Amino acid sequence: TVSVLYCSQDNTTTVKMQRTVAALMLVAAVSAQDKVVVNFYGESLCPGCDGAVNGPINRTLTAKGVPDILNFTYYPFGNAYVKISECKLDPGFQCWENACGYGAKNPPSDCYTGEVVCQHGAGECYGNLVETCVKNITGSDALSYMPFVYCFERNGD
Q: Is 148 left (phi over 0), alpha (psi -120 to 50) or beta?
């Protein structure tokens, strides 16, 4: 089971996220499948993502027994995108996502080589980089890198 979650500043999204993760864990526990895979695409220093990371995600990942049935990965990129030549007339995340994102048929060669633009500005881009570095240093186990993410999101202004 794979679920992709995005955060937003809308509290209903956080509630839906919590319910989705709970439902996926129940499916894994009942069906004796491999771990439930949850990929979370967040944005550093985003108020909505801070609420999700320090709320339902923290409670879920630190609950007893959850690591045994959940394979969680945090991607600190969120709504960021790379400026590409194909999107000069229509710059923005949606154009980049269509051209370079999952399922893009013939992505242009500059999908990941241009300037990165973050929804919340340069501070978010820097924070995303810091969180990515910590994730790379500590390894792919969410229990190793998420404590830093909880702290950084809560205090990283």
A: alpha
List, in sequence order, every residue forming a beta bridge with 84; answer none if it has no partner: none
CA 41 to each of CA 32, 37, 44: distance values in angstroms, whole numbers, following the listed order? 27, 13, 10
SS (H, E, C) 96-143: HHHHHCCCCCCCCCCCCCCCEECCCCHHHHHHHHHHHHHHHHHCCCHH
Tally of CB atoms within 10 A around 65: 9
Tell me the sheet residues that pair with 117. 81
Model-level pTM?
0.79
Say if residues 118 and 124 touch (Cβ distance below 8 Å): yes
- Cα 114–77–131 angle (5° rounding)? 110
Phi and psi for 86 in degrees, rounded to 5? -65, -20
How deeply is 69 buried, as exposed, middle or buried, from its count of CB atoms within 10 A (0-12, 13-18, 19+)? middle
Q: How far apart are CA 117 and CA 124, in angstroms?
A: 9
Q: Do residues 73 and 39 touch, judged by C-beta distance below 8 A?
A: yes
* pLDDT per position as a tens digit, 115-141: 999 988 999 999 999 999 999 999 888
